[in-house]
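Continuing from the previous page of notes. For each protein in this section, the sequence appears first, followed by its structure tokens. Read the first protein now.
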Amino acid sequence: MTAATHRAAVLCGLGGALPATAVPNSALAAELDTTDEWIRTRTGIRQRFVIAPGEATSDLAVAAGRRALESARRTAHGDRETRGGGPGKDAAPDVDLVVLATSTPDHPCPATAPAVARRLGLTGVAAFDIGAVCTGFVYALATAASMITAGAARRALVIGADTFSTILDPADRTTRAIFGDGAGAVVLRAGDQAEPGALLGFDLGSDGAGEELITVPAGGSRQRSTATPPPERDRYFTMQGRAVFNEAVLSMSKSAETLLARIGWRGADLDRVVAHQANVRILRAVADQLGLPEDRLVINLVRVGNTVAGSIPLALADAAADGTLRPGDKVLLTGFGGGLTWGSAALRWPSPYVEPVA
């Protein structure tokens, strides 16, 4: 690194993971008061994946993390083709930080990241969780990148993973239609801002006044301190859809515009926008706010639904594997979630090895 460049976190590995069980809209229609058409026209989603009994968020996080580490190893060796092959044993052994974004940890205590790190053979490294719901991956990415640029880490594994099927009301057709389980991960290494894959900037924000728009009312210290059993419905995830729609479009658009101005890009400069995969109408509205045609959007919610913190990295993995993301593309990431929280990041796309997310 020369005096003319600046230390940066560089994306050098990418992977995703989905459970084995796909749930098409027709399966929900057979169980709930809904139809395939109702779900597709309101969300754009045709199917989602759910974990099997006994599986947990950490299982998906480990699978995605292992693939991202293998991607980083093969990228470093110049193997950038998309093809099959199992993970190598020497995948990125110098990772010294694991950050896991999740709202569905394996346990309320302790954090899930240390167990994920151990299962990946990364013993002794710093590992912690971040909870920002659907914005979690962007928050985790910014945290890991900051630690790298500050010199506190050399290489980081950043994972977004959630299993919202475990906190949904089985009788709620709306939330069950929207959410699926999944995980995505990236590897960041220390580099400089001139490199492809360098993270060029972030914009993060929150507004706690909207905390009740996206929430699980029971299970935390506020409810538990009352020593009163909560109503059954309070154990499940709830969302005020119309208000969330409006807030999501406004917050992601403003965050994206703020970041673009900060790094000297215009909306028209963007080759791809990878937004949180919540709802196809939200994605289209964000593109419209940025003055972009719909074909600049990366959309994979059709087959995976809303995977919460796994959403953005899974979309990246799909788009990289099918060639939608090309080396040199100017890429914007943007998300919105409970809290309320929002955030954006920008980079020029590198050329990592990546395998399709089955």
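Done with the first. The second protein uses the same format. Note its length before scrolling.
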Amino acid sequence: MKLLPYSLSIFFFLFMFIGSSQTNYEESKVPAFAIPDPLLTFSGYTINSVKKWEKVRRPELLRFFENDIYGKIPKNLKIDSYTILEQDDHALNGKAKRKQVELTFKNNNKTLSYTILLYLPKNKVKAPIFLGYNFYGNHTITEDKAVLISSAWANNNKSFGIENNTLTEASRGKRTHRWAVEKILDAGYGLATIYYGEVDPDKNDFSDGIHSLLYQQGQNQPKPAEWGSIAAWSWGMARALDYFEKDADIDASKVIAFGHSRLGKTSLWAGATDKRFAGVISNNSGCGGAALSKRKFGETIAVINDRFPHWFCDNFNQYGDNEEALPVDQHQLLALIAPRPLYIASAEEDQWADPRGEFLSSHYATQVYHLYGKKGIETKEMPMLNDPIHNTVSYHIRTGKHDVTDYDWENYIKWANAFVK
């Protein structure tokens, strides 16, 4: 076989391995595609009632997302024990009750523990709560010196003073802007947060998180259809909910799953797989979260699986640069949360997460909410910036970047007051 000249070989390589996956940020370049009908079964049967949705369509969609996208949990693993590490009924200058609760799990001669930081309204019995993971430790969401620093592995971050994958006092309070703790408490809600790295460290290594407690003999990584990290983090949220059902200070029937970015993907999967969550918030969750995959806008399946191969199950790799082969899309994930309240939020500058794809996903999920007599996103016309749509399915796009802001929390609280609380 005749070899190409060196320059042509380089061009061919770039075209084959880079050019075909270049990021698209232009609506005119979004490919034509059909929206998979959430109310049409894989065998072509039309769903026209809540009963048929819950008995036929919802289970088959859930199975597909489990087998081919997020991965199945091998078996149920319950809390072995829980310990209140610290509590104070006069936290935050007397405004809140604070608890730090460690959940412990044991299996395969291994142990895993993670700590829930709870702030609860001081004078409220059975408080509804927002539950969400944080990225760099519970101590980063507050200046509160009593909040314990995790010893779990963390991604290095020079601006947070994190070196050698170790969390320290230097990062205390670095993410207070993302957690409107006082606004949440003033509205009568509690806040529960967990450092996600305690459940499963965010790296392509399945040896030191929850996965290893459920391996079969000789296994050292999940099988192709078994859980990636997003499913593991979702599992951790569900186990926190198990604890809340035992805590007399918490109304476990009104726990709202919240998440930002990869943890927004997590909150969606947690809400889809555990109907006990009273509502779900996805903040800037993008590809593999709220955004439609078939649009191939911003981050794509190929890119996310290349950069973060541990997030999804291995079966998801077959759809990289092959979104047209997917028999589902992310609006059907959102539909699995029906009829419970759902809030999808985007940011104008966060084109990587495809705000329009997140909005359209909310719209196309709405027809399942209609089965239950609920309103959602009734139009395909995106709202103006900072002009939220508040229904059982809610949406806003705000000015700014990929982040969580007070504006987001103000809207989440308003929505929760109307549709959850």
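What the second structure shows: The first helix runs from residue 6 to 17. Residues 126 and 235 are 24 Å apart (CA to CA). We return to this in next week's lecture.
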